[in-house]
Design a protein that fits this description.
Blueprint (H helix, E strand, L loop, with lengths): L7 H4 L6 E7 L9 H12 L3 E6 L10 H7 L20 H12 L3 E6 L4 H10 L7 E4 L1 H5 L1 H4 L7 E3 L4 H12 L10 E5 L2 E4 L25 E4 L2 E9 L1 E2 L10 H7 L8 E2 L2 H15 L3 E5 L8 H10 L7 E5 L6 H9 L2 E9 L3 H6 L7 H12 L4 E8 L6 H14 L3 E6 L7 H8 L25 H16 L5 H7 L4 H18 L2
Parallel strand pairs: 1-2, 1-3, 3-4, 4-5, 9-12, 12-13, 13-14, 14-15, 15-16
Antiparallel strand pairs: 5-6, 6-7, 8-9, 10-11
Length: 507
């Protein structure tokens, strides 16, 4: 039940209002999130005090995502210990309890993704005795509000964009006004559940520049391309114009249909202005651009970016779809400092890519895109996913064969994780590969699905040997297949082949 102030007359005079945001993050994934930054900035604009409790540096799992990717030969090894960055020795639950007791916020806001939801709920349970109102937001809450709101430690759920909703909620609470009719927010109060409708999406020009002051300075150190650099994250756009079935953007596009749509673009001059400001203030060395498909926009916009970005003058990383890559764009990106580009391959089986994933692009066009990038100074990686529903071992080898043809320097492979919101989640539930309330696993660490034609053990074996199959001659494939298994022999052989791979392909 949402807390009620006992003396409204006294509280009307109260000017201070404090929010404790929780960034429930996976261990040592240091890239700062633009969402927390804009939330904090939006609240502070209204005179609301904000503090952040961050789980990033606590030991909440055995291995980090980067450690697994290094072990599976996808990225070069990096070590945060060289920078003096180590997991906190304290207990995350106990430290959070102490933070709440000392800060005494008026509202606790949990931001989490599906894989960190359980930890987030444990944090809220630990302070439920304080009766401080709680609100949960983020992608998982957006697509599972009926699950989240059932938790005794949750008073409210924010669905969709949170900036305007959270500001309105806090202003109403500060003024002791009714909070049961805030758009985007579900509210439990006095035995009732108020399910409020979504508001229209924001114009990105209305967003304040991110507030990075809430972050621990260690959060700016991000491994990219084998180096750890002070990195800034900037939203070039929000959402994606495409609705690929394996991606949660398919859910956002459906959710906001009729409400202005979810996909929006930030004005380039404003984006550049924020980059310049943050570069100077935080001594940035690298830029991470949040754009699901950087080149899927107008030529005028790309030209404007190329003209203005030299004012920032930092190396940057982007994502792109193969069909958006042209010779002209490659030259333009290289000329303004693009250091890395990740290109979405997803699957090498055309029928699966078209009919299951919703990506109608030929293998020939994928190959052409990588050929255009091959001669550039840009570090190129191909993004692959394995373990889709209906996928077989043979279809995964179609993906391996396509990767052998494109010869990208970086070979990335993830497990398909049916997160709530993506269209394929419904398929997985119908096929009974998982239950409605199951939590999908981290796409870097382990498979979620255990399918009749492709078990989780088989997927795990293919995941760790994927780069070996791509890079090594086919005469070595029988040895690589042994590495798919478990046990001392498989591990010993895998380490031997990994050393050869690292020496030959990852220097």
């Amino acid at each position: 039940m949402v807390q009620k102030f006992k003396d409204p007359k006294v509280e009307e005079m109260k000017k201070d209002f404090k929010v404790l945001l929780i960034n429930c993050n996976t261990m040592l994934d240091t890239l700062i999130t633009a969402g927390i930054g804009t939330l904090s900035a939006s609240l502070k604009q209204e005179g609301i005090e904000v503090k952040l409790f961050d789980t990033t540096f606590y030991k909440t799992r055995d291995k980090t995502g980067d450690e697994v990717r290094a072990y599976t030969l996808q990225v070069k090894k990096t070590d945060f210990k060289e920078l003096g960055i180590l997991p906190e020795e304290g207990d995350v639950i106990e430290d959070f309890r102490k933070e709440v007791e000392s800060y005494r916020p008026d509202l606790i806001g949990l931001s989490c993704i599906e894989v960190t939801y359980s930890l987030g709920i444990e944090l809220l349970k630990a302070v439920r005795h304080t009766k401080i109102p709680t609100v949960v937001g983020g992608v998982y809450a957006t697509f599972s509000p009926d699950i989240v709101i059932k938790e005794d430690c949750v008073d409210m759920v924010c669905i969709g964009e949170g900036e305007m909703a959270l500001v309105e909620l806090c202003k109403r609470m500060r003024a002791s006004e009714d909070v049961t009719h805030v758009q985007n927010v579900w509210v439990k109060q006095n035995g009732m559940l108020y399910k409020n409708p979504l508001r229209r999406t924001m114009d990105m020009r209305e967003l304040p520049f991110q507030d990075w002051g809430v972050y621990d300075k260690r959060r700016f150190w991000k491994p990219m391309g084998g180096k750890i650099s002070v990195t800034g994250t900037f939203e070039m756009n929000r959402g994606c114009p495409y609705s690929c079935s394996f991606c949660v953007n398919s859910g956002f596009n459906k959710l906001y249909k009729g409400l202005g749509g979810y996909y929006r673009e930030q004005e380039i001059p404003r984006l550049i202005e924020e980059m310049q400001e943050k570069k100077e203030k935080y001594n940035l060395q690298f830029v991470y651009l949040v754009a699901e498909s950087f080149l899927t926009t107008s030529r005028k916009r790309i030209d404007e970016f190329a003209r203005l970005y030299p004012r920032v003058g930092l190396p940057f990383w982007i994502e792109a779809r193969p069909e958006s890559i042209t010779e002209e764009y490659v030259e333009l990106l290289a000329s303004v400092g693009c250091e890395g580009i990740s290109v979405g391959i997803e699957s090498g089986n055309y029928e699966l890519r078209k009919n299951v994933l919703g990506r109608d692009i030929t293998n020939e066009r994928v190959i052409q895109a990588f050929e255009l990038l091959e001669g550039s100074r840009i570090r190129v990686s191909g993004n692959n996913i394995i373990g889709f529903p209906t996928e077989t071992r043979e279809k995964i080898f179609d993906t391996i064969e396509l990767n052998r043809q494109i010869k990208a320097k970086g070979v990335m492979v993830s497990f398909f994780s049916p997160y709530r919101g993506c269209a394929l989640r419904e398929v997985c539930e119908l096929e009974k590969y998982l239950k409605e309330d199951d939590i999908a696993n981290d796409y870097r660490l382990s498979p979620t699905l255990n399918m009749p034609q492709l078990t989780s053990r088989e997927l795990a074996g293919l995941h760790r040997t994927f780069p070996l199959y791509v890079r090594f001659p086919k005469s070595e494939w029988p040895l690589i297949k042994i590495c798919e298994g478990n046990g001392p022999q498989a591990e010993s052989l895998y380490q031997e082949l990994s050393n050869i791979y690292t020496e030959k392909f990852m220097r």
